[in-house]
Design brief:
The complex is a heterodimer of chains A (about 500) and B (about 475). Chain A is of the alpha/beta class and about 500 residues long. In chain A, about 35% of the residues lie in helices and about 15% in strands. In chain A, strand 15 and strand 16 form a beta hairpin.
């Protein structure tokens, strides 16, 4: 007797369909799994056997072969427990194969036959071709995010079999949890006292999707500003939200209930992070890294100068392309990684380098500290500003700054203008389209020309200045032309770059 | 190479030697005898024999070889060629190693020297001042001693090298007193490591330039590393060599304060360049001024009057045998103007005390500090050291005088002329970040940015590493 159960495995943030074929015949009793199973899959033999026996099923005394097709791809994860168990039940004729027609199965089995959570619910459910899927009850809500599938949940294999035989008894997607985080979940920009330039830079970064570098001594509010940036970004659209949900699901991060997030993600990896943990990878199924987890949101890298240089340089291509291509000998995957990078660094090891004279670092210590930030990486920051410690008066002042809500409404309006241009945000306008999309007033042209002539500005720098100036004009709702004021502000919001990289802007 | 000198050098290169121990080893014996006794464990100053067997012939030969190889001279206390200005010092170094153009050691040590030192973590202001002081003193033929360290020291040496790139020494003026031609003075450095060792290593280019053009002095044999305590010991030599010590910028715990302390204990005048009261880099030098230990120095003219005062202080070293250098101030042609004249009139040469003015002459020339030139040519506050003015003096922006200096412009600021004056008033020599300018002016970032960019275009403001200063 042969059974064929559709299921899938995880590869990066996507699923890859797998058919679980189970064959039982006369011969020496035995059980083997073929088709490149990894350790977790091979061990499913013991879990399946125990689960079936404790749930009151028989363990076949025939010779059983489980094949995971396609057999050339390595299979990882425990989500194949349930399909293997279902295959066994059909092969040993304990249930009818008709009962499972058009149904895909996912789930990890406990020894008592219970069904457990597995990572990658959304991409796996999405990839199978059957109209119906059966998943552990804890995954039902998450799986229901996929709009095209009928999702059935069960808490144990016994419940699955009973429901398949008699119908009913399924755990269905409830409205138990309301997806998404509310606006208040992010800290309010109004908490930031003083820091007019810092607040402004965060606003421009959010409005134009410009990567932002904050340079300042300890205690100047770099982290405070960065954590307020995601609150300024517009809510995710359904498609964006679904792509974020897939990534979160693939990293098993969605267990906290927010399956379809409406707010952009915010990730802040510690500076001891390895290159793999940042860009993604790993041997078994190419885990998404922090840059993918920050997809459509904000990646905040505090203490940029303390990250490994290899980690920092591995960000260069993803920053440019919005995806990261990970290749290993057997597998390769393209993971989405369109994020807004906010980085913070001290100007020197002692942190006081902004105030001339108070820094006790030697020039060589500074050089070594900043040498990790390669030119190409620094080039990708459209905005780089220096922050000073806030003034005492500002700290004691009881009046609060503008709230996140008000700034976010300006940001949304500016993004609206970018959408009308046909881009998601100004930062991704290609250079060749700048002349059409970002025309400049004669004043602004003259200012740019003077900066180009004096050598403070490079050609590439000019394009970045124009994009930022366009965003600033959008924020001001200033109509058609970029004015000198917008260009000057763009120049100033990029000026701190020369602290870490002497020379042109 | 002279056996006696090599013997003294051998003693100076013993492990764990200090200036005091070296003096004890050489006291009462001539160097060769001292070496023999040390080698044999017979020296009364080394009763435990810790250096026994360390002064063999092979070691001496190797040391002599090394000195020849690195072209380093050995000068021994009490022998010919030892700088007389050091001979009278209470803790004179027993042995000196001289690198660079060592044949000029006699000339420079006979001249009135100015020691200019400061912090390694200097502000742009301090670097600028140090550079100008070095350049103008050297131009006036006054040798400048410094320590070849980072920051102020390096700026001083660069300034000196600007005036004195190498032989032949450029003529910079004519002494009105004697009619002799004045030549620029060569750089002098006292280093804490061996005289052939560039420290910090990365400053090798500057070290080479000073080696080629000037004299490098050290207590440490060639190839020796600069230990921490050697820097303080080095400071005493700098103070002893020179007639005046000028501190350009120093933190409250800076090494330059040691140099100033050594000078004060020797009754030598100390000057300090004032800095902004809130600049940590100037905290030590400002304290020197406040406590009355140092005279306030606004430029080379003040240093010159300190030199004059130093030579007349009773009890100070008698330099009567020295041929006094003529001190000449060369005025840069037409580079003075109303900023200096209006902001700080007594900075001009005329204001130097009458007692010293006899030696100070004003010449028209290409390089020196701007003096009173009332023709009203465009002001350039940084043209010369003589023009370092208090920040509040030029163009505070609120009063009429600033308007004459900074003509109103109308482009681009949307009629906000006040902003222009407010921003100009805030900018000083202490760099301000954009953030600070925005906070102080209370205007939006965009307006302030445009204002700063326009000021930069007019040459009134300058941005460096994200911070803005007046220029």
């Amino acid at each position: 007797m042969i059974a064929n159960i559709p299921s899938a495995i995880l590869l990066g943030v996507d699923g890859s369909p797998v058919s679980v074929e189970v064959h039982a015949s006369n011969g020496v009793p035995g059980f083997s799994i073929v088709g490149l199973p990894d350790a977790a899959v091979r061990e499913s033999r013991d879990r399946v056997r125990a689960a079936l026996l404790t749930s009151g099923f028989k363990w076949s005394s025939k010779r059983v072969t489980v094949n995971l097709a396609p057999s050339a791809v390595r299979k990882a994860g425990a989500a194949l427990d349930l399909p293997i168990a279902m295959g066994m039940l059909i092969a040993s004729e304990q249930i009818d194969s008709e009962a499972v027609t058009g149904c895909a199965f996912f789930g990890e089995l406990g020894l008592d036959g219970s069904l457990r959570y597995f990572p990658g619910v959304i991409p796996l459910v999405d990839v199978v071709s059957t109209p119906k899927v059966v998943v552990p009850a804890v995954c039902v809500d998450e799986a229901s995010v996929v709009p095209t599938k009928e999702v059935y949940g069960a808490t144990s294999i016994r419940q699955v079999v009973d429901a398949l035989k008699g119908g009913g008894g399924w755990a269905l997607a409830g409205s138990s949890s309301t997806p998404g985080q509310k606006h208040e979940d992010f800290p309010d920009l109004a908490d930031v006292r003083g820091q007019p330039v810092g607040r402004r830079a965060v606003e421009v970064a959010a409005a134009g999707g410009h990567h932002l570098l904050l340079i300042g001594p300890p205690g100047s509010g770099k982290t405070m500003l960065a954590t307020r940036l995601p609150g300024l970004l517009p809510p995710l659209t359904f498609d964006e939200s679904l792509s974020v949900a897939r990534i979160r699901s693939a990293s098993a991060l969605s267990q906290d209930g927010a399956y379809l997030p409406s707010r952009p993600p915010f990730r802040a990896p510690h500076h001891s992070a390895t290159a793999i943990s940042i860009v993604g990878g790993g041997s078994s199924w190419l885990h998404p890294g922090e840059i993918s987890l920050a997809h459509r949101g904000v990646l905040f890298m505090d203490e940029l100068g303390e990250f490994d240089r290899t980690v920092l340089d591995s960000l260069r291509e993803p920053l440019e392309e919005g995806v990261v291509r990970i290749s290993r000998v057997r597998v390769s995957a393209v993971l989405p990684a369109r994020f807004l990078l906010v980085a913070a660094t001290n100007p020197c090891p002692c942190g006081e380098g902004m105030t001339p004279g108070s820094c006790r670092c030697t020039p060589r210590m500074r050089e070594r500290y900043l040498a990790r930030l390669s030119g190409p990486l620094l080039d990708r920051f459209d905005l780089s500003i220096s922050l000073a410690k806030p003034l005492v008066d500002d700290l004691l002042c009881m009046s609060r700054g503008e709230s996140t809500e008000r700034v976010a409404s300006r940001v949304a309006a500016a993004r609206e203008l970018a959408h009308k241009r046909g881009v998601s945000c100004n930062a991704v306008i290609p250079s060749w389209a700048l002349d059409d999309l970002a025309p400049m007033s004669p004043d602004a042209l003259a200012l740019i020309e003077r900066r180009l002539r004096s050598g403070v500005l490079s050609a590439r720098g000019m394009d970045r200045i124009r994009r930022v100036a366009l965003t600033i004009a959008d924020l001001a709702q200033d109509g058609t032309l970029i004015g000198a004021e917008h260009v000057a502000e763009a120049l100033q919001l990029r000026a701190a770059r020369s602290i870490v990289r002497t020379g042109e802007r | 190479m002279d056996e006696t000198r090599v013997a003294a050098a051998a003693l100076a290169s013993l492990p764990g030697i200090t200036p005091a121990r070296l003096k004890m080893l050489m006291g009462g014996f001539d160097p060769e005898e001292a070496v023999e006794r040390v080698h044999g464990g017979q020296h009364p100053a080394d009763p435990q024999g810790r250096w026994m067997g360390l002064c063999g012939q092979d070691r001496m030969a190797a040391l002599g070889e090394r000195c020849l190889e690195t072209a380093v001279d050995i000068q021994v206390f009490g022998m010919d060629g030892y700088p007389p200005s050091l001979s009278n010092d209470p803790i004179a170094p027993a042995v000196l190693f001289i690198g660079g153009r060592k044949e000029r050691l006699g000339d420079v040590s006979n001249a009135s020297m100015v020691c200019t030192v400061g912090t390694r973590a200097a502000s742009p202001y301090g670097m600028k001042v140090a550079y100008e002081v070095g350049k103008e003193l050297a131009t006036a033929g006054i040798p400048v001693v410094s320590g070849l360290a980072d920051g102020i020291d390096s700026a001083v040496h660069r300034g000196v090298l600007e005036a004195f790139p190498g032989e032949p020494s450029p003529a910079t003026g004519i002494s009105a007193h004697t009619g002799h031609i004045i030549h620029a003075a060569l750089p002098v450095a006292v280093v804490a490591g061996g005289p052939d060792v560039a420290y910090p290593r990365e400053s090798g280019d500057l070290f080479d330039a000073v080696w080629d053009a000037g004299v490098i002095i050290s207590e440490v044999p060639p190839g020796g590393k600069a230990q921490r305590w050697r820097f303080v010991a080095r400071n005493r030599i700098m103070a002893a060599l020179s007639d005046v010590v000028i501190v350009v910028e120093s933190h409250t715990s800076g090494g330059s304060l040691h140099t100033a302390g050594y000078a004060l204990r020797r009754g030598k005048p100390v000057g300090a360049v004032p800095g902004p009261i809130n600049s940590p880099a100037s905290s030590g030098s400002n304290e020197l001024i406040r406590s009355g230990k140092a005279r306030l120095v606004r430029g080379v003219v003040d240093i010159v009057s300190l030199l004059e005062a130093g030579s007349s202080v009773p009890g100070s070293r008698n330099k009567s045998k020295k041929k006094r250098k003529k001190i000449v101030v060369v005025q840069s042609g037409g580079a003075a103007g109303e900023t200096c004249a209006a902001g700080a009139p007594d900075m001009t040469v005329n204001a130097v005390e009458p007692a010293s003015v006899q030696d100070v002459e004003v010449h028209k020339g290409p390089v020196f500090a701007p003096a009173a030139d009332q023709k009203g040519t465009k002001a350039n506050a940084f043209e010369g050291i003589g023009c370092i003015v208090p920040e509040s003096a030029p163009a505070t922006g609120q009063d009429g005088s600033s308007e004459s200096l900074v003509p109103a412009r109308s482009d681009g600021l949307g009629g906000d002329q006040n902003l222009r004056f407010i921003v100009l008033g805030q900018l000083g020599f202490q760099p301000l970040t954009l953030e600070e300018v925005v906070v102080l002016s209370g205007r939006p970032v965009g307006k302030v940015s445009l204002c700063l960019e326009l000021l930069a275009d007019e040459g009134l403001a300058r941005e460096q590493a994200g911070s803005w200063t007046r220029r």
